């Protein structure tokens, strides 16, 4: 058995899982840095006001509302437990136990490490998705297609901090600088005259700005002959108007989703954009934390855990990697969401 090896025992594998650095940069981590907490029900307590304020909490189990506090606590506990697993099947075990060459046996071992690295990245990706849901939408809307559990809540974000433009930015004659100045002023109004430190958009939204006549005129004057705008031009204009620096977030993560095929529900992997196109989000500082809580799998300690499991029928081995994490949005007034479609 592969996971009988010393390096794949629970404590050793957990140490490995904890030591692997992130596979990529997570843009939102600096806005909600990780903070450990020993509260077992920390995820629910984040939402009910112990760590941050929320306007509403709704849960569904197989389309029926969850009305009991215990049921909602359990649902949020499951949402906070970010875990993924992979299995070694009979073919893998045969290659390990009866290899044709030493290299074939080593390939199975190397595969365990590779798959474990992917599981670790999946946990980190899901934490970033939760941060993106929080900061880019003002709440979390989550559906578990395997267990038919859905959870939705909104933080107490000022409604005035959700803005729409009068002319879509896809129109070159729109007025994005005017729109952004209005969003910037709204941010200052709800944050004691403080200004946002960054604004995030996708490259699709940026492309509208690079074709915009108001910005072209600001850069080149009235007789500009349709000259090309660059991202550097945009940053310079924003700086001159005392608008925050813009950052492109085109990151996607892969999550499970349900799809109906011939009347049957099928679980598929689906790419999810962290930030929607046609949206600009102005972000302040000290927004909150990504709370890292305890888990039973780790003896109620905090941090990532690894759990190797042996299956008998059919024969197989499984490794689960996870972490209990949930975003606590402590300053929901410190974001402004501008819809530009």
TrEMBL record:
Gene3D superfamilies: phage-related protein like domain (3.90.1690.10). InterPro entries: Lambda_capsid_assembly, Major_capsid_GpE. It holds the Pfam family Phage_cap_E. This is Minor capsid protein E.
């Amino acid at each position: 058995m592969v996971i009988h090896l010393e390096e794949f025992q629970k404590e050793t594998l957990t140490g490995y899982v904890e030591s692997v650095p992130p596979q990529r940069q997570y843009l939102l981590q600096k806005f909600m840095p990780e903070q450990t907490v020993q509260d077992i029900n920390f995820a629910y307590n984040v939402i009910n006001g112990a760590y941050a304020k929320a306007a509403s909490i709704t849960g569904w189990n197989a389309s029926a509302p969850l009305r009991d506090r215990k049921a909602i606590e359990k649902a949020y506990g499951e949402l906070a437990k970010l875990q993924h697993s992979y299995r070694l099947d009979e073919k893998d075990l045969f290659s390990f136990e009866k290899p044709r060459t030493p290299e074939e046996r080593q390939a199975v071992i190397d595969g365990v490490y590779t798959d474990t690295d992917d599981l670790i990245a999946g946990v980190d990706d899901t934490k970033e998705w939760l941060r993106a849901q929080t900061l880019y939408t003002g709440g979390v809307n989550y559906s578990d297609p395997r267990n038919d559990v859905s959870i939705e809540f909104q933080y107490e974000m000022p409604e005035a901090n959700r803005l729409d433009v009068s002319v879509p930015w896809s129109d070159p004659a729109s007025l994005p600088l005017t729109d952004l100045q209005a969003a910037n002023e709204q941010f200052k109004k709800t944050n004691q005259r403080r200004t946002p430190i960054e604004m995030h958009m996708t490259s699709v939204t940026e492309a509208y700005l690079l074709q915009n006549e108001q910005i072209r005129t600001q850069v080149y004057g009235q007789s500009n002959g349709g000259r090309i705008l660059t991202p550097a031009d945009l940053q310079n204009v924003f700086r001159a108007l005392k608008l925050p620096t813009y950052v492109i977030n085109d990151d996607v993560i892969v999550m499970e989703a349900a799809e109906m095929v011939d009347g049957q529900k099928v679980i598929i992997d689906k790419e999810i954009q962290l930030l929607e196109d046609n949206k600009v989000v102005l972000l302040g500082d000290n927004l909150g934390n990504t709370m890292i809580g305890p888990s039973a799998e780790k003896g109620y300690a905090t941090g990532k855990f690894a759990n190797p499991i042996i299956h008998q029928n059919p024969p197989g081995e499984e490794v689960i990697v996870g972490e209990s994490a949930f975003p606590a949005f402590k300053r929901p007034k410190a974001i402004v969401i501008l819809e530009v479609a």
